[in-house]
Amino acid sequence: RLSLVGSEMCIRDSFRLEAAARRTTAAGSLEDLERARREVWGQRMVRLVARAKMAVEKRGEHLTLLTDIVNSCETQAEAERLLLDTMMMGAWRTLRAHVYVFARLELFVRDYGHRTETVFPCKASTVVKYLLHLRNQGIKPSVPASVKASVIWVHRRIQLPFQHLLETPLVDAISSSLAHLKAAKFDDRWVLSAENVARLENYVANQSDDANDRPAMVRVLVGGFFLIMLYATIRFDDLLHSAADVIELVAGALLGVAWQTKVDRRRKGTKCSASHGSISGEDWAKRWHRLLRETLAPGEERDYVLPAPSPDLKRLRYGVVLD
After folding, report:
1. Which of 67, 95, 303, 307 is most solvent-facing, going by the fewest CB within 10 Å?
2. What b/e readout covers 243-279, taking b as 16+ CB neighbours within 10 angstroms?
3. How would you class 297 by CB atoms within 10 Å of its CB: exposed for 0-12, middle for 13-18, buried for 19 or more?
4. What does 10-37 look like in DSSP terms, one character per residue?
């Protein structure tokens, strides 16, 4: 019989997990880094499945997910790989967010719940008890819905019943009780003025062209990156997922292809373009594109736009993704 047992209860520092992901990654590959991150959080989900398995078997039942995997695979290694692949599905930030929320709920039940209380599956009353505990500590009005969403996500992923969580009105009642904490929404975001955009264009276009002035080059590349976000109306992460070697400057535009975006996880490739224009009249795009090409080694095919700059913005850390 195939065995998929293991356990872990602690919430580790996310920086340690990030370091673990980077250690297993080929330098200079954003795709490899994100796969490693998903595997790190997928492993956390595998350990969560193991805890669910033990809780369910104490009641003389079986976890449907594991039964399906065992019946589908011929070897232990194949079963473990399929389980990990199942747990890794989705964006790594989504995995991280749900794993952390659910782990905190587990710790609450361990420390404050009845000895027979479990989160596999989690009763609506357990979620409500946890939220009332958080409310007494002072939480934002959005927290109850976030906790409910994470619990449902975990239950759906490991195939535990969750319909009762969808139907309970108690979580919404707690959210309503916190509504008075919501501040009036004002459009108080800081927005770049046309004057500031023109200054940034001037900076990118007219900074020192001395090849030995590495700090100036780094600042120009970073400044141009943000100008492209403005002129292409593209998200930071979507622009980051654009291969540097395929970005080209043509009449009227800077063209690129984002191989992954927030809405395109199938990696079909989403074409994007930044208008080759400026408020100041300076040709910032031409200079930025030339400097970008200089960051590429001959024949290099980098799957992200820029390496990360050092904290003092004096050099680029080649092989480290801007993130």
Report:
1. 67
2. bbeebebeeebbbbebbbbeeeeeeeebebebebebe
3. exposed
4. ----HHHHHHHHHHTS-TT-HHHHHHHH
- CA-based R_g, the chain, Å: 25
Contact yes or no for 290/195 (Cβ under 8 A): no
Q: How far apart are CA 103 and CA 9, in angstroms?
A: 7
- 3 state SS of 243: coil
Token reading at 241 = 């997922």
CA angle 119, 84, 29 (to 5 degrees): 125
**What confidence score (pLDDT) does residue 183 get?**
56
pLDDT of residue 187: 54
* d(C-alpha 189, C-alpha 192), whole Å: 10
pLDDT at 47: 95
Cis ω before 121 (30° cut-off from 0): yes
Q: Consecutive sets of 10 residues in the chain, 323 residues long: mean pLDDT of each?
A: 38 49 58 88 94 93 92 93 94 93 95 91 94 88 92 96 92 84 58 90 86 82 92 90 89 88 71 90 93 85 84 78 68
